Amino acid sequence: MNITATIITFNEEEHIRAAIESVSWANEVLVVDSCSTDATREIAQGCGARVIQREWPGFAGQKQFAAEEARTDWIFSLDADERVSKELRASIEDLLYTGEERLADGYRIARRAFYMGRWIRGGGWYPDRQLRLYKKSAGRWEGAYVHESVKMQPGARIASLNGDILHYSMSDASHHHRMIGERYAPLAARQMFEKGRRTSALQIAFAPPAAFLRSFILKGGFRDGLAGLAIARFAAHNVFLKYLMLWEMQNREPSTRDGE
Questions:
Q1: Topology of domain 3-167, per CATH?
Q2: Of 128, 139, 200, 222, which is most buried, counting CB atoms within 10 Å of its CB?
């Protein structure tokens, strides 16, 4: 079992070294960079990674391109702001000595986020299982704008691994707020719009409080104290903003009514 660790990047000079070092066990580390203007490429090359520069086609498209360019049939996909925990590394290394006939076609891995100085347990943020280790002949990346994931072929065997992917996604509250406004909400709104989803003033009013209660109460965000409160509050803001943006999109559509 030979594995290529793939990482997609754009201006990730603060993160890329630690990400690459956490997958040093891989047979190959491949970084696909979207024309960074900082030192991302130079740092990645200095860490021994093979670097390909490519214009940005979207998350799923870039991750699928990385898988296709890998020199091995097994892919471990890591984001630049993620790290492999020691327990996860041990679980993957155990697979290296497992006979091919005993291997699954893909493996789901829990992802744990570090936020406001603590590891998050609730709010729907953990275990957040992701299919990140897979045989590329058995799966491919899909997803239009957000929530890209590996879709496995029918009948593929999927198992789980012990250990976590460690996620350092938000540096502070300002970063979190900015990511929602600049990335998550507009991309989600665009995806819903293109799938034919539409919204109403009633949904814009009531969906955000429901998202807050779901995150903070039903999914146990209260266990994380102030961090859990912030996550729930931002979840509500994200829902409000994406539906408001969807409302703006649908009301920019050309009117088909007579006389208009």
A1: Spore Coat Polysaccharide Biosynthesis Protein SpsA; Chain A (3.90.550)
A2: 139
